[in-house]
Write a structure and sequence with these properties.
The protein contains nine helices and twelve strands. It is globular. The model has no long low-confidence stretch (mean pLDDT 94). The structure holds zinc ion.
Length: 314
């Protein structure tokens, strides 16, 4: 039995995970706004989950840049900034009551670890995983190791540059993939079209409330043949294909796992994406690299967090 913990901006989740990756018990609390309350909430959650059960290890997934060698959160902008410089293992120690090994890593690598242990990457040595959501996350399994890099930054596929003179990104660079393909970017483009009064079903529906328009509305309209939505989706997929083609040439993976909320668009996303990637990579790669969905369907992040205890790689 392993204790998995997911630390997010809105909720902290924890649960007991069996050796087969099954989530046996879980609980969650809202993420407190300051460190002392966070430490209390985290320990309370851990105690509630353990409740006398002994676990062989604890795995923690957390946003930001986490140093896996000492579980310290190095960089974490936003509401959880108070965790910067803190050791997650030290924070939960009062609730563990014994010498239990604690591992931590960022949420993207945690998701890949889950796929390696119990999902689509099982038995494979070279896999790229992308998580398409508000931003674009990524993680890489290369020659059987989950890459972390010199400072724990490896795998940030969302900041691969697709246009050197493109829009300013939250990372400080320009033209990153995230500024072209992400829920944030797709919604921004669609809202701009609606606000300008472009001819579209989205303009008719959201004319007075473009702020409520979501990425899934754009994909739905595109699949129904809406011209503006189609153009936005096609352009976004074109940029994603370009970035992934570069990644494929760099890492030569067996498969690419495509997860995250936007991946729920299914074939509307995956078919044109695969076609454009193949066009750009067939010469060197000489094969179709399968784009597959994740198989660990635990959305809480708890199962993946438990899986990093199998891939400590300190
Ligand atoms: Zn960036």
């Amino acid at each position: 039995m392993i204790l998995g913990i997911d630390i997010g901006g809105t909720r902290i989740k924890a649960g007991l995970v069996g050796e087969d990756g099954s989530l046996l018990k879980s609980a969650a609390v809202p993420t407190p706004p300051a460190l002392p309350a966070f430490a209390r909430a985290l320990c309370g959650l851990v105690s509630e989950c353990l409740d006398g059960v002994s676990v062989k290890a604890v795995g923690i997934g957390c946003k930001g840049i986490v140093n896996p060698s000492n579980t310290t959160v190095d960089v974490l902008p936003g509401t959880l900034h108070y965790l910067e410089g803190r050791s997650l293992a030290e924070l939960i120690q009062p609730a563990l009551g014994g010498e239990i090994p604690v591992f931590a890593d960022n949420d993207a690598r945690v998701a890949l670890a889950g796929e390696v242990a119990w999902g689509a990457a099982r038995g494979r040595a070279n896999v790229v995983m992308v998580t398409l959501g508000t931003g674009v996350g990524g993680a890489v399994l290369s020659e059987g190791r989950i890459l972390r890099g010199a400072a724990g930054v490896a795998g940030h596929i969302g900041h691969v540059i697709v246009d050197p003179r493109g829009p300013l990104c939250i990372c400080g660079s320009r033209g990153c993939l995230e500024t072209y393909f992400s829920a944030r970017a797709i919604e921004f483009a669609a809202r701009e079209g609606v606000d300008r009064g472009c001819e579209s079903a989205l303009t008719e529906k959201f004319a007075t409330r473009s702020g409520e328009l979501s990425c899934s509305d754009v994909f739905r309209a595109a699949s129904q043949g809406d011209g503006m939505a189609r153009m936005i989706v096609d352009e976004a997929i074109f940029s994603l294909a370009a970035a992934l083609s570069g990644v494929l040439h760099l890492l030569d993976p067996e498969i690419v796992i495509v997860g995250g909320q936007i991946s729920e668009a299914g074939d509307a996303l995956l078919l044109p994406l695969a076609e454009e990637i193949h066009r750009r990579t067939r010469c060197l790669l000489n094969r179709l690299v399968p784009l597959v969905p994740p198989q660990v369907l635990d959305r809480s992040g708890i199962v993946g967090a438990a899986a990093i205890t199998y891939h400590p790689q300190k």
